[in-house]
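#struct-pred
JK: can someone run the complex with flavin-adenine dinucleotide? inputs below
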Amino acid sequence: MKFDVAIVGAGPAGSWLARELAKNNISVVLFERSPVIGEPNFSSAGSPAYTVERFRLPPASVAARWDILRINGPTTTFSWRYDTPIGVVFDFRELKVLLLKEAEKMGAIIKLGSTVENVKILNDYSEIYVKSEKEAYRAKVVVDASGPSGVIATRLGMRKAIPIKPSVGLEIIAETPQAPIDVFRTLDFYFGRVWVPHGYGWIFPMMKPCVKIGVGVFQLARYGGGPRLEDFLNELIKRVPYLSGHHIVETHGGMLYGMGIRHHVFKNVIAIGDAADQVNPLGGEGIRHALQSAEFARDVILDAIAKNDLARLEQYDIRWRKYIGWRWWKCRILAQFFYHHFSDSMHDNFVRAVSKITAQEIFDALFEYKIWPSIHARLFKRHTGY
Ligand SMILES: Cc1cc2nc3c(=O)[nH]c(=O)nc-3n(C[C@H](O)[C@H](O)[C@H](O)COP(=O)(O)OP(=O)(O)OC[C@H]3O[C@@H](n4cnc5c(N)ncnc54)[C@H](O)[C@@H]3O)c2cc1C
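RT: done, structure tokens with the ligand placed:
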């Protein structure tokens, strides 16, 4: 019942961190409230291809590779082609299953069906209380990787109590026998109110003949009780001809919060991934950043334990803030404009404008958040001649 590190949540962040710490001979216990390994399976899980090598992810977790990126406005469409597959779509469930298996092989203790309810911070360790278990677990360091619920971070006041305006997504995995072959190598986005008001739709490739079809709305609660994600999803399916005759394999969804985190570290507790609102606010990309935060956490935990000085955990906060810089803040402002204020004609103008930028520039804008140098500079050039 005594460990160096206790991790709450077996999402990508928690599973990856468990593997990495166990690999470094740290005793780790990981609690996951789902009784089924790999569940909940909710993410579209699109990412740049380099994520796989960068974080040494199991290659078998990749469901599809894409080398075409397509953006659709209400009446406009444009696609970019890459010389090699520049991105991947993970089988989100498989990603977690494989990471957990690797973690277990390295010596981590994985406890499924274990809901952490409370953490009590004592002098040089913490007690972790799991639902329906009488005895508490003890660990020198506790990592909150519990996703949007941020169960420990919220309880300790490290982040605001759940904000009332989460962004929400609904997705199906469907077999699409009529889809043209290019669909299985294309990351496809749908912007504009005719597609999804105050959000966007997507079709991501999986292993043929499956695709992920989803809709997400930015801060749904802003728009009263009106919008229904199911309606938007059905509308998207109706408007894309090759989706007729699709067969639903699975339906799932989830929530995203943003900017509620106040402190990433509190005494011997660290919050990583979505528990620390580390998902990018513009498009909702979170896996790569959850893994990055887990990597920072791994480094500071190894250092703090080696030097027997838990105050060194504070370095995590500094590293994360340096990593995001002003990018998340800028993306959030852009998201307000894009999802809240843009009309359909503005979305069409947006697609026309970005059609002038190169394949590398659109990739950098969507995945490296280099929004100003690419889109802005081009628009400026177009309108001023400079
Ligand atoms: C619809 C949707 C589509 C998305 N699409 C993409 C995408 O295309 N690309 C991308 O990069 N990101 C995407 N994201 C975001 C991405 O999935 C998340 O950022 C990522 O999963 C965060 O990982 P995490 O490990 O921090 O948290 P999570 O994946 O949320 O994992 C948290 C885990 O903690 C467990 N847990 C919660 N509370 C407790 C508790 N009390 N005790 C024990 N366990 C607990 C949960 O069951 C869960 O397994 C999407 C998100 C949604 C909702």
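RT: quick notes.
The radius of gyration is 21 Å.
The mean pLDDT is 92.
JK: thanks, will look after standup
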